[in-house]
């Protein structure tokens, strides 16, 4: 095998991704991180010029804010960067760290316990934020000044640090329409995707690579993984491509589309009428496009719109029902 082949394999093994982000975006990210940490320092310094609870005035910020700055300003659209992930991840991890230090102090395994529990708590609270692990760790190994704070550590420096860096993330990213923060604000400006019926070509890995380059923002997923995800989704969709035979009151139906065209409706009234022109269905939109609107249409039109029946899951997702489950 050639040297080029081995270099390619080494790149894949090490996870060295071809970064398609433009230089301007990289510089914007660097500037944002600089301003974010500056805001943390001066914001906390302004709130507590003499330190916290008689500790040294130099105790201004936790180092985990540096990691948060990377996510907030380099990957502002990422799931790990969203407000609940950042705020909940840090505060819950701080609580876990302080609790571990107070309940089992001076043990060699206490730092590991704090980080492990913090990861578990963030998972269950749906606020996974990697820097939170460092916040929990700092509460255990931070030394006497941190121990003296106790649970006030959650307020200062953590909460004050968070307020400062989050405010800067909101303001700074607002100047750039393609990276407005939180991500929900950016989704509102995305162009309407091409309807499925109008697509003429099969999407390929090269298409995803080109789209990621056009996005001009760091995306925490490779083109290869994105392609694999689409292929798995297509295989899942092929299991049930027929429209539902029965439209039942109280049940949920999805149009099966992608992106901001996706929608789920719940049938409010599906009483049948022998006259086809009056056989109508009353529904309300419960997820996706349409935003909780209500509507009425012919049963035949609703069946044509509905791709399959779904049911809500405890995690907030929707599960497609198979013929057996229906």
TrEMBL record:
<feature type="transmembrane region" description="Helical">
    <location>
        <begin position="56"/>
        <end position="75"/>
    </location>
</feature>
<feature type="transmembrane region" description="Helical">
    <location>
        <begin position="27"/>
        <end position="44"/>
    </location>
</feature>
<feature type="transmembrane region" description="Helical">
    <location>
        <begin position="84"/>
        <end position="104"/>
    </location>
</feature>
<dbReference type="Pfam" id="PF04982">
    <property type="entry name" value="TM_HPP"/>
</dbReference>
<dbReference type="InterPro" id="IPR007065">
    <property type="entry name" value="HPP"/>
</dbReference>
<feature type="domain" description="HPP transmembrane region">
    <location>
        <begin position="22"/>
        <end position="182"/>
    </location>
</feature>
<dbReference type="InterPro" id="IPR058581">
    <property type="entry name" value="TM_HPP"/>
</dbReference>
<keyword id="KW-1133">Transmembrane helix</keyword>
<keyword id="KW-0812">Transmembrane</keyword>
<protein>
    <submittedName>
        <fullName>HPP domain-containing protein</fullName>
    </submittedName>
</protein>
<feature type="transmembrane region" description="Helical">
    <location>
        <begin position="151"/>
        <end position="178"/>
    </location>
</feature>
<keyword id="KW-0472">Membrane</keyword>
